[in-house]
Amino acid sequence: MKTYITNKVLIALGTICFVLAGLDIAIGHHGSFGIDALPFFYCLFGFVIYVALIFAAKALRRLILRPEDYYGRNAIDAEPAQRPEADNV
Amino acid sequence: MDAAFALIAGHANYWLVVILMMIGLYVAIARGNLVKKIVGLNLFQTSVFMLYISMGKVEGGTAPILTGLPATVYSNPLPHVLILTAIVVGISTTALALALVVRIREAYGTIEEDEILEIERDVGSKS
Amino acid sequence: MLQALLHQLPVLQIVLPLVAAPIVAAFGGNGRGWMIAFATSLIAFAVAATLFAEVLDGSVISYHLGGWAPPIGIEYRVDILNAFVLVIVSGVSAICLLYARASIAAEVEEKNHAFFYATFLLCMTGLLGVTITGDAFNLFVFLEISSLSGYALISAGAKRDRRALTAAYNYLVMGTIGATFFVIGLGLLYMLTGTLNMADLAARLTGYGDSRTLRMGFAFIFVGIALKLAMFPLHLWLPNAYTFAPSAVSSFLSATATKVAVYALLRILFTVFGFDSAFEANVLRLIVLPLAIVAIFVASFVAIFAEDLKRMLAWSSIAQIGYMLIGIALLSHEGLMATVIHLFNHAVAKAALFMVAGAFMLRAGTTSIPDLRGIARDMPWTSAAFVLAGLSLVGVPLTVGFISKWYLVQAALTQNLWPVALLVVLSSLLTLTYVWRITETIYMREAPAGVRRSEAPLSMLIPTWIFTGLSLYFGIDAGLTSMAASRAANALLGASNLFWQ
Amino acid sequence: MSDLATPALIYFAAALVTPFIRWHIARAIFLLSVPLVALATFAFAQYGAYSNLPFFELHLTLFRLDALSYVFALVFSLAAFLSLLYAWHIRDRLEQVSSLLYAGAAIGAVFAADLVTLFVFWEGTAIASVFLIWARRTEGAYHTGLRYLAIQVGSGLLLLVGIILNYQDTGSIAFEHMELGSLATWLIFLAFGIKCAFPLLNNWLQDAYPAATLTGTVTLSAFTTKLAVYALARGFAGTEILIYIGAAMTLFPVFFAAIENNLRRVLAYSLNNQLGFMVVGIGIGTPLALDGTVAHAFAHVIYKGLLFMSVGAVLYRTGTDKASELGGLWKSMPLTMMFCIVGALSISAFPLFSGFIAKSLIVSASADTGHFIVWLVLLAASVGVLEHAGIKIPYSMFFGHDRGLKVKEAPFHMLLAMGLAAALCILVGVWPQQLYALLPYPVDYAPYTTDHVLTQLQLLFFAGLAFAVLIRTGRYPVELRGVNLDIDWLYRRFLPNLFSRLSSAIRALWQAAARFAAGRTDRALVLLFRAHGPHGLIARAWPTSSMVLWIAVLLGITLVLSYL
Q: A75 in a domain, yes or no?
């Protein structure tokens, strides 16, 4: 299956991140609490939290995912797709 | 003993009124026939008339018609007058009630309350 | 000349409709009856409004019937409270008569119209009389005039449904017992005091102190009036009577008859008994308050499940009377204000709602709720009036209903009766439920296919909207009602010497 | 009569007229003019209280213009204009009228200087807005609307009780700062909290917003919750508990949003998360934090509206808003995609976009006041925002799996509305001083420092990198059809089940005890109905004898009580 996140995109993103991390060394940043003044704090925080969030959400889904007609056949989630360009969507 | 006697005899009019009142109310409650209910109602009202009238009696008083004699003791005429009015009200009530009973009889073919309720419930559950 | 006429206003208030009634009965054929009745009610309203304006400053007009001075002669006594009720009764009569023309033409047989309007005028005479008189026995007579003509008016619904007859009969039996109880109580008071003038009674009763006869008299009078005002569980006559009466009559009686009874209760409780006895407080606190609360909930539930619009409105009346009784039972200035304002609110809103029911009856031929599906499409103005008047019944802000509930809740809270306050607020949800149920049916449901109903005639729409407009107008500009209510409450409490004041 | 001046009246008057304009283009133009006219009435007015309406023993003030109410009314007017422009094609008068009433009520509430007026408009927003859901005219929408209405009206009732109690306590109905402590203030706080979708009170939002019409959702997203933010800011600024409530609000929706399939519901969770930032700001209560809250509310209304518009445009063209059915639309709807990405960048707080210059104030304020944990939570929540609103929304609609959908670009008026909103996002992001000048307190804050820009970019890009890596390794969650349970499970499944279990248990007991098998009792209401229904014990016609008996009973009780 075709994906939009091609190697090129990955490399581009990686490069930007590399540059940003480099700037952290070159310019440095200040922090309010000490821990956030550490080098690469924001880089690591962003990456780790994102991954953790996704895994936590996937675990959550195991618990709470139900079929669309769980709340009844007439619930809004179980309604069939609307006719495109209908006014009352 | 005397006291008990006084309680009964001294208030004889009240006792009569109360008994009559109870009979009237009982008829109104217990009888399913609409006309009999009205009779009960009449008894009930009449008992009240008697309460008023007996109330107006003054010991040793005469009928409240001016005699011209200075020492005459009159019974109190006011309750009597009031009761005249109340009697008129009572008659109107009875007349209206009887008229209604006639109409009910035309509409339902019966004047027994339980039969009428039966018919009405059938209508109610159908509609 | 004019001045002389002005002095006769109190008696004119009664005599005009009383004299007009036989005229209507005799010459009222071909629609003339309606004309005369309507004109009379308009004049009566003008008289009531003039009286109201005169006593607005708190003064009292005392009129001696036939020139006989009270306490022997009969006195008509107008103060701000009963002038307010007079305005309500005569105003509602006029507007209901305006409405009645089209509605009665459809619901009552042509040959009976003259008698119908004559009876209507008599009923109005009775209600006005109860309100204006200062004599307790006279009050009974007027009460019976209004009740008897009321039974006849209700039975006029027999053309549509014969159950109107049994409803009228039941009401008659109950009403007569109630009135007789009232007379018994009055007799006992007369035995004690030898007077029947209310002001005089009040003055003498304070001198007599407590006695068994007094208490017994109070109990009889209280039960008698409670029956007339349909206090739960003495309400059993009301649902059928209001359901099967012609719509104009339902509208008229629901707006006036029970209100006048509430007024009579206020008069007796506060003016005559003067309210200095613990036993009255007992009765109010231990009987009226709980029964009123039960009434609100039970009657609201019945209204929620009702299948017929008029029956729903009738049960809702029983619930609304509960609010007025709570206001009385709280025995405070704010509570009485709530009662008086609610009196007005309910008169106006319920009259409008019954008029809407009548319009539906006229155009759709039924008031059965399932049959009214989608009727808002065909009768938008009537339906909109229902929603607005319904909101006033619920007590939504910007309607009169909110103001009376506000005072009621305040009154309950100042006495730390917060469960009562809470129940009052909760019960509004029930009211909302049954109003909403109708709104949903008439607006959201598909109309039955092929059914087309035209909008109600203007002669019915205008009265409906007058009432609806009033309940909105006085909800926003609450000055007049709350001022009148406040002064009325003052007058009532001032007449009595509440022991905790 | 009395002084009823408030800009809300213009909306209400227009709502009265709207149904009678027959030609729909004329109606649409008329609608568009309403927010502008209303805006003109207060945009250039001096601050102050303008109306004084005696209302029995109280005095109502319908129109109070100060810095706080000005900003909110301004952004509400903009939102009303944009959503009406977006809804240009709508011919349904019900929806148009309720949009006007809803916007009017929200603006009226913002200008209310006393609690009674606030209450009236508060309930007004509830009642007017539910028609935006019902305008969808399906059974599901009807039931969802009822749930929404019950909760919203419930919030109003709590508010009313709170107001009455507060009046008892203080003798005042003025809407000013309050201290939590009495029952009255707690009730008011709770009422605000429900409308603000506090954790556990939040679910009406996720339940209702995806159920409205596509244009209705855009309108809904602007007013109700921001009104609650306004009310909290006015009444409870600096209340400490709000900091923690807000922090929880920023975090928990993030997980739900990540796995939600319905894109409008994703945005509803995201809305919840954004409200969290504002609530934190209110809780901190320093001038910087409050400015941040107001600025964020302003920016948020615009970019969240923009995102809802882009999802709505896709829904309009494809007929669905479910991620599992969408993808690859960038070719057919390039402009919508562009605007959507502007919204996504704004909400993720990329520098040069409006979210950045607003959210930074709140995050900085939390750091300044030394709330370390809260600060960390906000930072983590920012990553979450990027995940579901910044990446998932545009990615799943315009990229993701190409479903081969062949559709047209969104209609012109939608593009115009989105373009205006996008332009606003960028304008505010690039020139924040214009927005800062409107804020209640003077702002001495420079968002564009090297430090700040750099750390923000690091945070966002590394999170983006994580996304790319997860996608490539196949660990990013696939979009699945289905519903995810939330608090609404309690009242949509658990309680009904419990009731039916209970009632069947009661039925079993009842039958065993009385051997009284009479009809079905599978609903709790049936017992009630049996007593009160048309043929129930209480409701049916009674013979006169029983009535008379009641009279006797009551007389007896009265006599007994009289002799006590």
A: no
Distance between CA atoms of C350 and C289, rounded to whole angstroms? 23
Distance CA D51, CA D114 (A): 11
Q: Is the pLDDT of residue B124 over 60?
A: no
Select from C133, C138, C139, C172 the residue whose CB has the most chain B CBs within 10 Å, as the one to mutate to test that interface.
Answer: C172
The nearest alpha carbon in chain D to B29 belongs to D545
For B81, nearest residue in chain C (alpha carbons)? C137
Closest CA to C364 of C354, C373, C355, C351: C373
pLDDT tens-place string over residues C109-156: 888 888 999 999 999 999 999 999 988 889 999 999 999 999 999 999
Residue D542 main-chain phi, psi, to 5 deg: -110, 150
Amino acid at C186: L
How does strand D64-65 pair with strand D48-49?
antiparallel
The domain tally of chain A equals: 1
B19 in reach of chain C (CB within 8 A): no
Cβ of D548 and B25 within 8 Å? yes
Name the nearest CA neighbour of C345 among C100, C128, C88, C126: C88
CA nearest to C385, candidates C355, C345, C405, C347: C355
Lowest mean pLDDT of C326-330, C447-451, D81-85, name the range: C447-451
D239: left (phi over 0), alpha (psi -120 to 50) or beta: beta
Residue D519 φ then ψ, to 5°: 75, -170
Which of D137, D144, D459 shows the shortest C-beta gap to A42? D459
**From the list D140, D379, D456, which residue is nearest A79 (CB)?**
D140
Chain A residue numbers touching D400 (CB-CB < 8 A): 4
**What is the number of structural domains in chain B?**
1
From CA C79, how far away is CA C10, in angstroms rounded?
A: 11
Read off the DSSP letter of residue C230: T
Quick one: tokens of C177?
Answer: 């017992």
DSSP state of D381: H
Angle CA(D532)–CA(D537)–CA(D542) in degrees, nearest 5? 120
**C-beta pairs of D201-206 under 8 Å, 24+ apart in sequence:** D202/D249, D202/D253, D202/D272, D202/D486, D202/D487, D203/D486, D203/D487, D203/D488, D204/D147, D204/D148, D204/D151, D204/D152, D204/D488, D205/D268, D205/D271, D205/D272, D206/D256, D206/D265, D206/D268, D206/D269, D206/D272, D206/D486, D206/D488
Sorted by sequence, the CB contacts under 8 Å of residue D121 that are 6+ apart come out as D8, D105, D106, D108, D109, D112
**Rounded distance, CA C192 to CA C183, Å?**
14
- Alpha carbon of B28: minimum distance to chain D alpha carbons (Å): 7
Weakly modelled stretches of chain D, pLDDT under 70? 1-4, 56, 506-507, 510-545, 562-564
Task: State pLDDT tens for residues D32-83.
Answer: 999 999 999 888 888 888 777 777 677 888 889 999 999 999 999 999 999 9
Domain span including residue A15: 7-65
- Using CB atoms, pick whichever of C148, C166, C187 lies closest to residue B120: C166
D132 vs A: CB within 8 A: no
Give yes or no for a contact between D429 and D352, defined as CB atoms under 8 angstroms apart: yes
ipTM: 0.67
pTM of the complete model beyond 0.80: no
- Report yes or no: B96 at the C interface, CB cutoff 8 Å: yes
pLDDT at C462 over 70: yes
CB D535 to CB B30 under 8 A?
no
Q: Is residue B110 part of a domain?
A: yes
Cβ pair D547:C170 closer than 8 A: yes
| Ramachandran angles phi, psi of D64, nearest 5° | -115, 120
Residue whose C-alpha is closest to residue C434's, from C320, C346, C303, C308: C303
Contact indicator for C341, C407 with CB cutoff of 8 Å: yes
D535 to chain B: which residues are within 8 Å by CB? 121, 124-125
Q: What is the mean pLDDT of residues C424-437?
A: 86
A1 falls within a domain: no
Residue A73: inside a domain, yes or no? no
